[in-house]
Amino acid sequence: MLDRQKANLVDGYTALKAARRAARSKGHGDDRPRKAAEGTADTGRSGAEKRSSGVHIARTVRPESHEIVCYECGYVFRLSGRAQRSFCPRCRTVLDMVDYTLETEWNEDLKTAGTIRLTREAVLVEGVLVAGDIILEGRVVGGSLRAARRLLIRPGTAFPEGRVTARVVEISPGADVKLRGRGSFENIEVAGSLKGRFQVEGLVRIRCGGLLQGEVEAARLIVEEGGGLKAKVKVVRKRGEGKGSRRQGDAGGKGKRRSGLRGTPPSG
């Protein structure tokens, strides 16, 4: 197939006109190229060369969509692009979408559909922190944390049982977490050390260098090369969604509401 963008084609009529101009130029003793000749020469350029010297047409990109969980009613929907505020299509609550980083003592309530990060220097004394995602590096001595989507636990974290709830738990490399009670989650990902009894609706994944101990009941289990598993394991069929089946849609339309599985991992 002919690639029209790369072919340099000159038709016979154009070649004849160029030859006549060249002859006239020689007859007048003028070796300088004339404007008409320049225009003729331009017809021989490829389409790619013309585009490189002309106007560039940029390709439009569709904004990336993100999963948003309403921190008031638990409704889940998708939103394209980034915004500091949005609203829940179900309960019409105006949602804060800003990400926050806490670096000192904190004793107030804070809600966002974005991310809250507690650094190593942060200490939650009192108050309720609610976010889509929570990155926990500091200490929790009072108050409570609730992650609507994901709780990421990093090394050096300290928190009493019952103060932290989440749907999805990720244990970072170097983190050591022990759960005295029974924790229920949607998914668990272990790259550090996790010990306890767990009921998981979806997937348990043990990364390279991770270690999971205790008892696990899950729909799926993946142990990557280099991961460790020292637990009593029961793989069960995923429970049916029933009347509370999830529905997904864009902001402003129908979405899905989650069942709100909760877990309470204490410090190691």
Properties at a glance:
disordered N terminus; three-stranded antiparallel sheet; eleven-stranded parallel sheet
Write the layout of secondary structure elements.
Elements: H1 12-27, H2 35-42, H3 47-53, E1 65-69, E2 75-80, E3 85-87, E4 94-96, E5 100-102, E6 105-106, E7 110-111, E8 115-118, E9 123-124, E10 128-136, E11 139-140, E12 144-153, E13 164-171, E14 176-185, E15 187-190, E16 193-206, E17 211-223, E18 228-235, E19 256-257
Describe the largest sheet: 11 strands, parallel
Provide mean pLDDT, rounded: 79
Which segments are poorly predicted (pLDDT under 50) over 5 or more consecutive residues? 1-9, 31-41, 241-268
Q: What share of residues is helical?
A: 10-25%
Distance between the termini: 66 Å
The number of distinct β-strands equals: 19
| Global structural class | mainly beta
Order of helices and strands: HHHEEEEEEEEEEEEEEEEEEE
Q: How would you sum up the global shape? A: extended
